[in-house]
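sanity check both lines:
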Amino acid sequence: MKIGVSLFGLSIASCLMAQRVAAQETQPITIQFRGMAGQQVFRCDAAYSLGTPAISVNPTDFRFYVSEAALIDAQGRTVPVTLTQDQKWQYQNVALIDFENKSGMCSNGTIDTNDRIVGTVPKGTYKGVKFTLGVPFNLNHNDAAIAPSPLNLTSLWWNWRAGYKFARIDFTPAMSAHSKHDAPGKTPAHHRDRAGFIIHLGSTGCMGGAQKPESCKNPNTSTITLNNFNPEQDAIAADIMALVANTNLAKNQPETPLGCMSDPKDGDCAGVMRNFGLPWNGQPARQTFFRVAPKQ
């Protein structure tokens, strides 16, 4: 009997020790994102001069999904981040980064914001970060109406076939911007020409299946790698100025939706998609949307 009790106590002690060892082998990690417009911190109630030629715009949305986050260690190995399942911003290996706060012109968003990925990694020294802009295929074509948070936002979902809007970054002409040629009380010229420029990144050409597709010709998920990134000191800037640097926000290709809806036939997407890190109709990608920046 004493032997049995001793063995039982030893078993409990072994389990507790194993748990402590496992905890010691990992470390908490926070990967911070910063919404930026050039060197300015993003705000829903601000106006920004964006595009080529530059026009003054107000943002109306700024959200995107990231997945498969990993750090790069000192030996150059990719080490996955195990996300904390917080039942709000993170689910499985997907996180929602949300810079809008339903203020200013961002009326379609939510009051709550999220600027970080939270999880654990094996203990070690890390020098880079890698992640995917987008939702993995196995989660991309679920029903947002019944999906867990943060995949339950219907404002970030197209339909069964197309799946989620991996990024939603929208602009409207700044209401305070008036051309010197506009008469008092008249609508500014660029307001008459445009209703805004919306950017909805997502999969296109999805085929097969009565509801859920079996494949997508254009997955439009972008793998982002940033070197010289120290998670203790650095953040990841998501820069709307860089994203639309070579896009004319005051023009729209005839017979196409407003702005860029990821359609490969829409010329308004050319600069945006390449700056997201996605090749475009034979033109190579040149990711500029994300960069390393100091933590706040």
Residues 26-294 form one domain. The chain is about 15% helix and 35% strand. Residues 77 and 175 are 49 Å apart (CA to CA).
